[in-house]
Predict the structure.
Amino acid sequence: MSGRLLEVRGLSVDYRVGRGRLRAVDEVDVDLRRGESLAVIGESGSGKSTIAGALLRLLPIANGTMTFDGLDWASLRGAPLRRERHRMQFVPQDAGSSLDPRWRVRESVTEPLVVAGTATREARERASEMLERVGLEPPLQERFPHQLSGGQRQRVAIARALLSDPRLVICDEAVSALDVSLQAEIVNLLVELRAERGLTYLFITHDIALLPYIADRVIVLYLGRIVEFGAVRDVLDHPQHPYTQGLLSSLPDAFPAGGVNKPVRGEIPDPANPPFGCRFHPRCPVAVDKCSSIDPNTVVVASDHAAACHLVSSTDEPTNPAAPRTSVPSSLLRKARS
Ligand code: SF4
């Protein structure tokens, strides 16, 4: 089946802090087509893992709608949610912490299938086949998690995620704990599996260098809001937002188009107390007066490419003023998906 797999509108997620609340994700829209790979990139504290948690229905949402695989995903509760959870699976940063240290890895991978009603023998065979496919030969399958390397444990997590035949696989910093050569191995494996099985991925990452390898489109997130959105090639070759340019400037050899000499200064502010106006203004190397008082609208710069900055000029169509700020305008999304 082709078409849209995931449509998120106006997603907001709050955390309770003392007696107050902190808005970690603010009015974010996400669209994902079947077979597509979308990256969400930003620093620690940008809210990207919170989006993953909300999509996985592990965190309550404050506002917004989520339609996933034809289901009103945000409204599912209890048994219906448990029944449908297999459709969206997760590969965490540290697979070791998600595996029971007392179980051999083949048992860990077999168990969810048995719980879902598959006969034990069939579940064991399917688990073993999948583990082999991700590169774990039978002797390794009999080991305990602590007897495997970090890369091998990530392979176990991938096998477990794929066994339930998910429509969407969310990879949350799935390679960031690995050294560079292992990162390349796991990224290659994920790319191969996507081509082989028509998988749809949502990649959460802070590493902009991974984008060309893992994603078709990217959302750049800053303090809980989308500041730039577009096809990976467009965003890397023509970054519009000073934050995106700053991220790229850390890798000037790989991405010479990204704002060399415009590094992002300082630390991300406390999400409990976001700056007024443009949230990026205290760190922005090109901020102008109005940046500290007026929140920028999202501006379409090209087909399927938009950024939220006062200095970005529209070369396409005007931003829909009714669209939520710092989300991709509905007009753009309709055009991009048609
Ligand atoms: Fe920088 Fe102003 Fe653009 Fe924000 S709106 S990114 S502060 S120039």
